[in-house]
Design brief:
Number of strands: 6
Low-confidence stretches: none
Oligomer: single chain
Distance between the termini: 15 Å
Mean pLDDT: 93
Radius of gyration: 13 Å
Largest sheet: 3 strands, antiparallel
Shape: globular
CATH architecture: Alpha-Beta Complex
Structural class: alpha+beta
Helix content: 40-55%
Order of helices and strands: EEEEHEHHE
CATH topology: Outer Surface Protein A, domain 3
Strand content: 25-35%
Strand order of the largest sheet: 5-1-6
CATH class: Alpha Beta
């Protein structure tokens, strides 16, 4: 389970492409497509290289009008979903 101190990154078998301010992704192994809204797209782009969840939230707080608690809660929930689908992993 991912927490605020974990460092996370994308898995390698995901294809993604920007479409306006969103991203469309294709999980080659599972044969599934995903669409990411603007905030999720920013998170996905940040996960290109390993980053701590804390640093990720700090960057999002600068870009969006939200509280630190709400940001952490929503980011952790989103990352948990990505982890369940095998789209991200914990980085060393």
């Amino acid at each position: 389970m991912i927490d605020i101190q974990n460092k996370v990154t994308r898995t390698t078998d995901i294809l993604s492409s920007p479409v306006n301010e969103e991203i469309v992704m294709f999980d080659v192994e599972a044969g599934k497509y995903y669409g990411l809204n603007e905030m999720a797209a920013i998170i996905w782009q940040a996960l290109e290289t390993p980053i701590t969840v804390e640093a990720l939230c700090k960057g999002l707080l600068e870009a969006f009008d939200t509280t630190p608690e709400q940001c952490r809660r929503e980011v952790l929930a989103f990352l948990s979903k990505l982890e369940e689908k095998g789209l991200i992993r914990e980085a060393p």
